[in-house]
Amino acid sequence: MVSATLVAMLLAVPVAATPVPTLPAREQMLDLLEHKALHRDRVDWAALRRDLAATTDPDRQRALLSDAINRATAGHGGWLSAEELREGYRKRAAGQDEARASVPGTAPDAPVDARLGLIGIASYLPGPGLSREQQRDAERQHARRLQDDLWRQDDGSRCGWIVDLGDNTGGNMWPMLLGVGPLLRGRADGPDVVGHFFDGTALQPWRYRDGAVWVGDAPRLAADDTTRRLRRPDAPVAVLQSGRTASSGEAIVLALRGRPHSRSFGTPTMGYSTGNVPVTLVDGSTLLLTGTVMKDRNGIGDGSRIVPDVPATRRAEAMRLAQAWLLEQPACGGRPVEKTETREQVPREAAR
Question: Residue 171's domain spans which residues?
Answer without folding.
Answer: 105-276+290-341
